[in-house]
Every structure is written in C-alpha cells, then in structure tokens.
Amino acid sequence: MNQLIADSEFVDAITVRRTAPDALLPLVASNLRFAINGRALVDVGELDIQPGAPSVIMGPNGAGKSLLLRLLHGLIAPTAGTVTWDGKPANEYVGSAQAMVFQRPVLLRRSVAANVDYALKVHGVPRNERSACVDAWLEKADLAALARQPARTLSGGEQQRLALARALAVQPQILFLDEPTASLDPVSTQAIETLIRDASSRGTKMIMVTHDLGQAKRLAGEIIFMHRGEIAEKTPAATFFDTPASEQAKAFLSGGLLI
Amino acid sequence: MQDFAASFVYAAELLLSGDPELWAIVLLSLKVSLSAVAIAALIGMPLGAALAVARFPGRGAAIILVNSLMGLPPVVVGLLVYLLLSNAGPLGVLQMLYTPGAMIFAQVVLVTPIIAALTRQVIEDLDAEYAEQLRSFGVSRLNSVPTLLWDGRYSLLTALLAGFGRAVAEVGAVIIVGGNINHVTRVMTTTIALETSKGNLSLALALGFILIGIAIAVNAALGMVKVTATRSAYA
C-alpha cells in the first residue's frame, strides 16, 4: 500500500461525517430464518456481534454464509426473525452507516474516481468535500494513477481494491465483505487484507465471509462457523483453530469432506 | 438501371448545387424527426426505466402493451392525431393541424413506445447487475433510475437510433396531420410520395438516396460512439 500519504492528512481528507455516529453494535439477530418453498436456507436462533476485531463467517459451500451476510446487511428480507442494531430496528441511519463489498465487485460504468465519488454523493457528502476524499482513498488503495481510467478495465485485484476503497470512503461503522479475495493472487490478497486491517484498526467493524483458512487466521477476532444454514459454532478465532468444539468444525479444519 | 444511375447523379447535383428547396425539405425533415425523438426520449426513457425497476400489479401487462405499441401503424396514429387536433377535436384549440408541430406530435406517439420498450430492456439488464450494489449504497429503486440511465447511456443510443430511423422514414402519419404543404410541412418522405405520384421518379429517387444517406451517417456515427465506449468498458 502507498505510504506516501501521511496518516493525519489521510484522516483529514476522509472525514466526511461531521456528527458523532450513533452506535450500531451490538448487532443482534434473533430467530432469523430465510426459507424458500418451506426449506430453510438460514436458520439462526441467536447471533450477537460485538465491536472489535473482524468477525469471520466460515463454513462449507451452501452453508448459508453469504445469505446470512445479506440478511444482516438488509439486502434481503428474512422469512422470520429480527435484526437489531444496538437494540434498535434498522432505519435510514443504520442503512447509511454500513456498506458491503461483494465477491465479484460491481463497478459502475464510470471512471475509477467517479466510482468513489458516486458513493460519497449518495451518502450526501457535499461536492466540494468529495474530491479530496476521493483522492485520499485512491492514494490509499494505490489506484491514484488509474483515477481517470474506466473502472471496468482494471485487473481483478485492482477492481476489488476499488470496491473496498469505495465502500470505506463512506466511513461505514460496519463493513460486510463477501469473500473479497476469492480468486485473487497473493499480492492482491495482501493488498486487500492490508486495507481491511487498516480500516478495522480505525474502528470499522468487519463482518466477513471467507473460505480461506489462512486469511481467517490472519484477520479474524472471532469465527462464526455455519453448517446447513445454522450456526454450529461461534467462538474466538484462536479457540476455533486450536480446539474446535463442533464435529463439523473439526471435520472442516481437518480438510475432511463435510456433507 | 438508367433511372438509378441518373438519380444518383441528380441527387449529387442537387446536394452539391445547394438547391435551397431541397435543403429546406431535408432540414425540415431533420428538424421534425429530431424534435420528435428528443421529446419521445424525455418521455420514453424514464418510462422504460421505471418499467424496468418498478414492481407493481399489472407490470407484465404494461410491458406487453408498450412492446405491442412499437408496431403501431403510422396511418392509424396519423388518423388519431388528426382527430385530436382537428377543430372538433379535444386539442383543436391549439390550431396545430397542418403544422410541423402536428407532425412532431404524431412522430412522438410513434417513437415513444420504441424508445420506452428498448430502454426497459437495456435498463432491466443493467439493473440485474447493479441492483444489490445500489441497494447496499442505500439508493432506493426509484432513485436508481437516473444512475441506470446514465450508466446505460451508450446502450441507450441504440434506442434513440431506432426511434430516429422510425421517425425520419415515416410517411403515413405526417402526411395526414401535416398535409404535405410546400415550404410548410413538406418533408422528404412526403415529397417522395408526391413526386412518385407525379411520375417525377428522378427527384423521388434522389430524395430517397439522401434519406438513406442520412440513415447510414447517423448509424455510422452512433456505431463509432458505441465501439469507442465498448473499448473503454463504459458500455
């Protein structure tokens, strides 16, 4: 990552929220269920996510990880159950104080800079404040030299860095990440992880899905392990990797076929 | 074949000589059709985009209706607009009949469904790609329409082109509501019809070639814009 930009300058440039944020955490999901044709794809009795290091959701394919992420972010409505934010139901503020980065980045048919500018614009950041913020984030994501290039001509790693910078530009309190480094090479993965670690250290709560055990070890504060739509285990990362409690987690970590 | 060859020469002579009568006809044709396309775009693009993103009872029927209206018979449209604008019609007070305004009105009715239907298709495809991301940004379905229209702008040129092609080549509606009055409402297509009926095939063919030339030029220009946009990954 580019270290040329001084930290204090960066913080000044990216500060787009003037008022003290309302707390969103703990995020609590109660009896959260999502079913299609009566078949439950997600069925979570109780889940609470506290501030702190990234919460990483793991599990085999079809376990419901991405669905859970979308339910928590509010992209899809649950069949039953509730999600509350510091005890309050979702509202406009809650929506504007969180962001999501998808496995396949969805970039607007605009330039690299215009993609970041758009996110700031829809979050109500005045035009005269946006330019410095866009520049600071592109510098941070090592994309400053590509600012005027059409976003969709970037490489896969650059596109994901842009999607992450765009999401972080609106200073979310919570950032949902759905396998942000899937199919990226180690260099690109490292760049993404640096951005995640940096934002996490600044107080953004990361809730992230990954299949990459190494990445989970590097980033996670806690692991939420899912199997067949349910949470099989939720535990600090060190405990999960050293002494997993559930049979499913043991099989998953040992590389066994989890059916 | 001699007629064709002679007509090419005649068309070239007419164009190069700057024949004021010919250019007046060509310019009026362009003025009427471009105005109609501009107005139809202002109506049809938001309408098509709204149909693409909105979910309401009867949406399927509305889409079928708009798609069906793409094939509106021009003479029927001409007749309906004539009835609307005639002295006894509800819009008779506007005194628009036999003016370029009436021709624009008729062409707007013909072109709007084409632009709306093609816009819906383009925006629906783009929405399928953007919907989750825009929702994640907190952009409502309705508020996503300007973003989708802007980001689909190069694909939407095709809708405008199709609308322009329909408008500039149309004769049935404009001859009914315009009346083909010399120096007032005479456009290329109505002149071609008139000159053909008079047996003046050379002038009719010459105007036909000019009409085809305009269509090719507009197509080529928009095609180049689309190729450039695709190469830049904006399309």
Comma- or semicolon-separated keywords:
heterodimer; A: 259 residues; alpha/beta; Rossmann fold; 6-stranded mixed sheet; 4-stranded antiparallel sheet; 37% helix; B: 235 residues; mainly alpha; MetI-like fold; 10 helices; 0% strand
Describe this structure in words.
The complex is a heterodimer of chains A (259) and B (235). Chain A is an alpha/beta fold. Chain A has a single domain, classed as 3-Layer(aba) Sandwich (Rossmann fold), CATH 3.40.50.300. Chain A is 37% helix and 23% strand. Chain A is built from 10 helices and 10 strands. In chain A, the strands form 2 sheets. A 6-stranded mixed beta sheet of chain A has the order 6-7-8-3-9-10, sandwiched between helices. In chain A, strands 2-1-4-5 form a 4-stranded antiparallel beta sheet. In chain A, strand 1 (27-36) and strand 2 (39-49) form a beta hairpin. In chain A, helix 4 runs parallel beside helix 6. Chain A is globular and about 50 Å long. Chain B is mainly α and 235 residues long. Chain B has one domain: MetI-like fold. Helix content of chain B is 77%, strand content 0%. Chain B contains 10 helices and no strands. The relative contact order of chain B is 0.16. The model of chain B has no long low-confidence stretch (mean pLDDT 90). The chains are: A alpha/beta (259), B mainly alpha (235). Chains A and B meet through helix 3 and helix 4 of A and helix 5 of B.
In short:
The complex is a heterodimer of chains A (259) and B (235). Chain A is of the alpha/beta class. Helices cover 37% and strands 23% of the residues of chain A.
**Mean pLDDT of chain B, as a whole number?**
90
Q: Examine the secondary-structure arrangement and name the CATH architecture of chain A.
A: 3-Layer(aba) Sandwich
Q: How many domains make up the 3D coordinates of chain A?
A: 1
User: What is the spatial order of strands in the main beta sheet of chain A?
Assistant: 6-7-8-3-9-10
Q: What ranges of chain B have pLDDT less than 50 throughout 5 or more consecutive residues?
A: none
Spell the H/E element sequence of chain B.
HHHHHHHHHH
Radius of gyration of chain B, CA atoms, in whole angstroms: 20 Å
